[in-house]
Each structure stands twice: as structure tokens, then as C-alpha cells.
Write a structure and sequence with these properties.
With about 400 residues, the protein is an alpha/beta fold. The chain has 2 domains: about 150 residues, Alpha-Beta Complex (Aspartate Aminotransferase, domain 1); about 220 residues, Aspartate Aminotransferase, domain 2. The chain is built from 14 helices and 15 strands. The strands form 4 sheets. The protein has a 7-stranded mixed β-sheet with strand order 2-10-9-8-7-3-4, with helices on both faces. The model has no long low-confidence stretch (mean pLDDT about 95).
Length: about 400
């Protein structure tokens, strides 16, 4: 199926479906008649084989108390091995309702109030919120932006901050939201070796692991240096981004170290008493098992890449001083409009003139990013064209 047919088949008008992105603009914006490109989910229906797996389970199986289905565990392990060349053990797998909840539980299990938790900034704002809600101290370590708009780490600054702030936990994001960076093994090895040297526990949020849209392959933190850092690490992932199933509340939490896993599960038992989410397990098993699902994913990535290339081509032709970061992972474009729009004018320009609802840059690290927006490209090319030409029309070179 080509990208045009994919969009015709799977794109859906989500207005009136209680979509947070489409029907929840009042939560973040001054008006509700905007083209929403903010919340990170897709405007595409999930693959039919996943819909059928859910429907078949409900039709054929009582929705009573259950235990974890071993077929689900096998599917996760096989997906990691075949798609990401990463070997897991069943014993390593536990869960959370979603990745952010898993991060919050890990913060609760492994740190104390007022402990310092480090992130590389700019980064997904929920990391900051989760840390604040848990009464911990967030330590943002700013990445450096290169002349070609890529992001790198000053490793000396990273280490000195960890020492000075007595950091206990580092939340790593790969691929990195919002800048679209896919971390190389060499980069991660430098970060993780510093953490190991200073007894800093690592959480690796890998929710965008399947959404690779550039030349750098994804490598799980678990596999770095042949697993040298896995004993000091918790990784998390979910099908929620890859197959657009965020409303099915389930995430894999992968903890190779027996003691850490036991500590996590003990904390989890204090705050969460439930059985397996059988609907999520059925959908995940199908997503990671059926060839049609992987074909759907690969075509969706092609659609997203085409949207990104169109956006970059048209915007840079009209507004050549824009700084657009390479989107090697995620479906999120990170764009700095600072050459054309003052920070104080960004909300007015995008909401009242362009009529677009983006994720604004300050949501990812404060005022330092107030001239940035993050645009969700997992939608139709038609929507991207509307947004692109509205920006060109209302922002003067």
C-alpha cells in the first residue's frame, strides 16, 4: 500500500470522538477552532488485525480475573530481538499502566523526597511534572545545539552537574522527545558510564523506539556495550506510540537486576492492585506477532517522513532562517522560529493568526525554548499542508 492509499484507508476525522488532541484544545489553548498538532498520538486507525484481536478476545473469552498470558511475553521478547536486536529474559519483564506511571513508580521506589533527578533538556515536560509531583528536585542539563540543529551533550558538564547536585536518578529519553534525536551507542555509553561511576540509577524511556525515520538505527539502552549497564537500568516502552493505542493502558517495564525488579514490584504492589490488562495484552501480542501490523507501522513511518520532508522543504523555502532539528526518531518536528517571531508573540501568532495548536517550546524546558514549537506529523499530508501554508502566510520573512 502506498502512502496515499494508507491515508485514505486509515486517516480519521477525530472531532467529536473525545480525543484529547482534537476535542481538548480548551485545556491548553485560548480557543477551540485550531488545527491540533500537539498531543503525541496519531490520526490513523490502528491496524485491522489489532482491532480484530481485541474484538475476538472480548467475543470469546470471559473478562474475569486473569494472569499474564505467556504468549504476550513471548511476543514482546521476539519483537525486541527481531526488530531491535535486543535479547530479553521473561524474568526481566514487569509492567505499568503507561510509561509515565512507570517512571513515577520508579521515582517512588528508588528515591526519597528532595532527591535530585537529572534530565537532558529540552525534554518531554511530563518528566518534570512527575518529578515535581513526587516531591523530588528536577535537574535539567541543557544539551548543546550544533550549527546543523542537532543536539549533543557536554559530557563534562553532565558529570559535574551530577556530582554537584548529588543526582540519584537520570531519566534518559531515546528517541529524544522533542528534538527527534536517536542516541548512538557511543553517546549512551558516555552518559551511562558517568552514571555508573557516580551510582546514578538510569531510567530509559524508549516509548518511541519503533518510530525511526532517519538513518540512525535505534539501539536499546539495555544493549549498550553488550549490556554493560543493564544491571543499573530500568527501561520502559509501549505500543501506544507505535500502533496508536495510548488509551490501552499498558507499558513494559524491563528490569534485568533482580533486586531492583523486586524493589520496583514491591512499591507497585503498595499503590496498584489489579490483574493483567487482558485487552492490552491481546492487542500487544497481535501488534508484535502479525506481519500485517509491522507492514502498517512501516507504511505509517513513510507517511510521517513524507510529511516531514514536505514541511521542511516548504517552510525553509519561504523562511530560510528557521532552525529545524533533524527528525531521526519520533513523529515530532522541533522548530525554532526565533529568527522571525519574538518569544512573547508566539502564542498569539500560532493560535490567533496561524490557527494552529502546537506544543509550545516552553513546555519542554522553560523560557529558553519559548520561540520553539513541536509539531505532530502523524496525520494526513493535507493537514500538514494547511499548517505549513498558514505559517508561511502569517509569518513574514
Amino acid at each position: 500500500m502506498n502512502t496515499t492509499n494508507f491515508t485514505k484507508t486509515y486517516y480519521i476525522n477525530r472531532r467529536g470522538t473525545h480525543s484529547r488532541k482534537w476535542d481538548g484544545e480548551h485545556l491548553k489553548f485560548s480557543r477551540t477552532d485550531l488545527l491540533p498538532l500537539w498531543v503525541a498520538d496519531m490520526d490513523f486507525m490502528t491496524p485491522p488485525c489489532l482491532q480484530e484481536a481485541i474484538a475476538n478476545y472480548v467475543k470469546t473469552t470471559p473478562l474475569g480475573y486473569t494472569m499474564t498470558n505467556p504468549n504476550y511475553l513471548d511476543a514482546v521478547i521476539n519483537w525486541y530481538k527481531c526488530r531491535h536486536n535486543c535479547n530479553l529474559s521473561k524474568d526481566w519483564l514487569t509492567s505499568a499502566p503507561n510509561v509515565i506511571t512507570g517512571i513515577m513508580w520508579s521515582i517512588g521506589a528508588f528515591t526519597k523526597p528532595n532527591d535530585a533527578i537529572a534530565v537532558l533538556s529540552p525534554v518531554y515536560g511530563a518528566f518534570d511534572t512527575s518529578t515535581s509531583d513526587a516531591q523530588r528536585h528536577i535537574v535539567p542539563i541543557a544539551m548543546r545545539r550544533t550549527t546543523d540543529n542537532r543536539y549533543t551533550v557536554d559530557y563534562d558538564a553532565f558529570e559535574s552537574t551530577i556530582i554537584q547536585q548529588d543526582v540519584k536518578l537520570f531519566i534518559h529519553c531515546n528517541p529524544h522527545n522533542p528534538v527527534g534525536h536517536v542516541w548512538t551507542e557511543a553517546e549512551m555509553a558516555q552518559l551511562f558510564s558517568i552514571c555508573k561511576r557516580h551510582d546514578v540509577l538510569i531510567i530509559s524511556d524508549e516509548i518511541h523506539q519503533d518510530l525511526i525515520t532517519g538513518p540512525i538505527p535505534f539501539r536499546s539502552a539495555l544493549s549498550v556495550s553488550n549490556g554493560a549497564y543493564a544491571d543499573n537500568m530500568i527501561t520502559m516502552s509501549s505500543v501506544s506510540k507505535s500502533f496508536n493505542m495510548a488509551s490501552l493502558h499498558h507499558a513494559e517495564v524491563i528490569i534485568p537486576n533482580d533486586e531492583l525488579r523486586s524493589q520496583y514490584n514491591t512499591y507497585k504492589a503498595l499503590v496498584y492492585h489489579t490483574d493483567s490488562d487482558v485487552i492490552a495484552e491481546a492487542a500487544i501480542t497481535a501488534a508484535y506477532t502479525y506481519p500485517e501490523a509491522e507492514t502498517w507501522l512501516n507504511t505509517a513511518l513513510t507517511v510521517i517522513r513524507e510529511n516531514y520532508e514536505y514541511l521542511c522543504r516548504e517552510l525553509l523555502s519561504a523562511l530560510p532562517k528557521l532552525r529545524i532539528s533533524p527528525m531521526n526518531g519520533t513523529y515530532l518536528a522541533w522548530i525554532d522560529f526565533g529568527a522571525y517571531v519574538m518569544a512573547d508573540d508566539m502564542h498569539d501568532v500560532f493560535e490567533n493568526q496561524c490557527r494552529i495548536a502546537p506544543s509550545f517550546g516552553e513546555w519542554f524546558g522553560g523560557e529558553s525554548y519559548a520561540t520553539f514549537v513541536r509539531l505532530n506529523l502523524a496525520t494526513s499530508l493535507t493537514n500538514i499542508k494547511v499548517a505549513t501554508h498558514s505559517i508561511i502566510e502569517h509569518i513574514q520573512p
